[in-house]
Design goal:
The protein is an all-alpha fold and 108 residues long. The protein has helices spanning 11-23, 29-36, 40-49, 57-72, 88-101. α1 (11-23) runs antiparallel to α3 (40-49), α1 (11-23) crosses α4 (57-72) and α4 crosses α5 (88-101). It has 5 helices and no strands. The radius of gyration is 13 Å and the shape is globular. The longest helix has 16 residues, at 57-72.
Length: 108
Amino acid sequence: MASDRLRGCSLAVIEGCLRAAADGPFFEDREFSLLHGVDRQEVRSTLATFKCAELDETAELAIHNSMGNLLGYPHGMADEIPNFVPGGMKAIQETFTIWLDNAPSRGR
């Protein structure tokens, strides 16, 4: 069963973000791991399993940073996002907000 962290999130948007990050033109190879905290193959592995497996730290990082970097990194390709993510930037922002709202409480 997929993680509770995904509850309420659009799985299609997360899938699109992971695919865009891993295989799209948005992030150069030399910067990828630094920006995402994981490498492209780890993002691809998360893409292949996130719907049916508990999310480990690597998967959470891949999902979080794929959405966050597509929203905030100055890749200058916002017009390309809908080719990967249904609903484009607005859908990413909505899903990212839900993702953040479902983050585990740290120290509370």
